[in-house]
């Protein structure tokens, strides 16, 4: 009997998680949190917004903004940026913490930052020479992947 109850509970949980993950939808730029709108206006004002998507991923809400040039910015529910991916151009310098900019300029002077992701305890930075640098929360380099 316990196995049946456990199996039913597991199926119910999977069903709810799957249903909540399917609530992605396109929204207007004006429906982003104010902090996200200010970020876009400060750093990407000259690039047209292609679309804005509101995403739900297992009880966590986020926003993805895709620009006409292929750049993307992902925002958390509170409007803070989580990831900036510029693919073909450099991430605007003011977005990258100054200590990371300084490290990259001194160690890789001819590269540009193509992507930066801010996580809970670190930053992951992809640069144009195909390296991926990981910095801790105090901006110390902790890993280099090629």
The proportion of residues in beta strands is 35-45%
> For the report, how would you describe the main beta sheet?
9 strands, antiparallel
The shape is globular
The residue fraction in helices comes out at 25-40%
Structural class: alpha+beta
Note the gap between the termini.
52 Å
DSSP helix count?
3
| CATH architecture annotation of the largest domain | 3-Layer(aba) Sandwich
Number of strands: 9
The side-by-side strand order for the widest beta sheet comes to 1-2-3-4-5-6-7-8-9
**Low-confidence spans: pLDDT under 50, at least 5 residues?**
none
Named CATH topology of the largest domain: Inhibitor of vertebrate lysozyme, Ivy
For the record, the count of structural domains works out to 2
CATH class of the largest domain: Alpha Beta
- What's the Cα radius of gyration? 19 Å
Q: Please, what is the average pLDDT?
A: 89
Helix and strand sequence: HEHEEEEHEEEE
